[in-house]
Amino acid sequence: MKSVDGSAKGPAARARRRALEVLARLEQAHADAHCALHHADPWQLLVATMLSAQCTDERVNQVTPLLFARCPDAAATAAADLGELEELIRSTGFFRAKARNIQAAARMLLEDHGGEVPRALDALVRLPGVGRKTAHVVRGVAFGEAAMVVDTHVKRLALRLGWTRAQDPRQIEEDLCRLLPRAKWTQAGHVLIFHGRRICKAPTPHCSRCPVSSSCPRVGVAKSR
User: Is the pTM above the cut of 0.85?
Assistant: First the structure.
């Protein structure tokens, strides 16, 4: 439905306008928002994102320089000694499972993709240890595709802002993709992650310093905060 001036009307259109207004203020507050994982190519970003599970980006960035010096590409990683690979990433946590998945992903890339990281979502999520979040990070950052990343920060903020009622990351992803323009998806993820790390923290957000506090319903947040 549209008004006489041609603008969209209705609850869904109003929700989209409000979300864009909030996002614009967050973009201004976090103009430096970007992917914090250091990488030089899609393979390095894929590996760094896999390592970031249950680990901080800062720790991953401390580990990857030596890792990438020893294993610069899929071919070198596929041929690496698994024990050495485990030791190189030990401090990121869950290092045995991560090492197995990284090496298995490298071997699958060599067998199915000529050693190159694919940009297609369905091809990425078939790689061992790669879920939708990791795949979207690679698609959005390495290949410039429209990709909505849903990590713990994005999930928390989407709920607090009232942009979704879902708990399942896949449903949250779909809700955000309906709410925000496709051209905003990738950067919106970076902005929400930065806001979640800096201000809208778990369990206690710094609402007094939040640039969107006047527009935030604070779903699940005590009103006294």
Answer: yes
Task: Show me where the domains of the chain are located.
Answer: 11-34+148-215, 42-142
Q: What is the structure's pLDDT at 61?
A: 98
**Is 73 an active-site residue?**
no
Distance CA 38, CA 149 (A): 17
What's the pLDDT at 9? 73
- Out of 5, 32, 122, 133, pick the active-site residue: 133
Q: Which residues of the chain have pLDDT under 50?
A: 1, 3-6, 224-225
CB 47 within 8 A of CB 130: no
Q: Give the model's pLDDT for residue 8.
A: 60
The third-level CATH classification (topology) of the domain covering 11-34+148-215 is: Endonuclease Iii, domain 2 (1.10.1670)
Superfamily of domain 42-142: Hypothetical protein; domain 2 (1.10.340.30)
Q: Catalytic: which of 151, 155, 175, 184?
A: 151
Q: Is 201 annotated in the active site?
A: no
